[in-house]
Write the C-alpha cells for this entry.
Amino acid sequence: MEDFVRILTIFAEHHDQEGIGLNSNFLETNIINILLLLFGLIYLLRQFLGSALMARQAKVLLAIEESEERLKQANIRLEESRKQLAQTQVVIKQIKSEAELTAQKVRESILAQGKLDIERLTMTSKASIASAEGQVKQQIQQQIINLAINKVASQLQNQMTSAIQSKIMEHSIKQLGGKI
C-alpha cells in the first residue's frame, strides 16, 4: 500500500510541474470507495469465478476421462480387427491353396479322361478298320468263290457229257440211299 501512495505522490508532483497529475486528497478522489468496491468485487467474483472454474475443470476432466476411455475402446477394437484380419488372411491362404489343389486335380482328371477317350477312339477306330478289312476280305473271298464256281461250272458244261451226268446221278442216289 505504501508503494501505491508513493506512486500517487509522484503523479501529484508531476502534475504541478506539467499541468497533468493526480489529486492527492484521498477523500476528494473517492479512492477509498473505489478500493472497497474493487476488493468487494474481487472477493465476490473470486467465489463465483472459482466455482465456475471448478465446474469447468470438472467438465474438462470428465471429457478427458471419457476420451481416454474411448481411446482404450478404440485400441481394443483395433486389436480385434487386426486379429480378425490375420485370421481372414489365413483363411484366404487356405482357400487359395485348396482352390489350386482342386484345379490341379480337375486338370489331371480332364487329362486322364482325355487319354481314356483317345484310347477308346483309337480302339474303336482299330475295330472299325479291322471290321472293314474283314468285310473287304469276305467280299473278295466271295468274289473269288463266285468266279471259281462260275469257271468250274463253265468247264463242267464244256466237259460234261450225258454219260458223266448219269454216273453222277447214280452216285448221288446211292449216297442218298445209304443214308436212308
User: Anything to note?
Assistant: The chain has a mean pLDDT of 85. The CA atoms of residues 128 and 134 lie 10 Å apart. The longest helix spans residues 31-159. Helices lie at 2-18, 26-29, 31-159, 162-179.
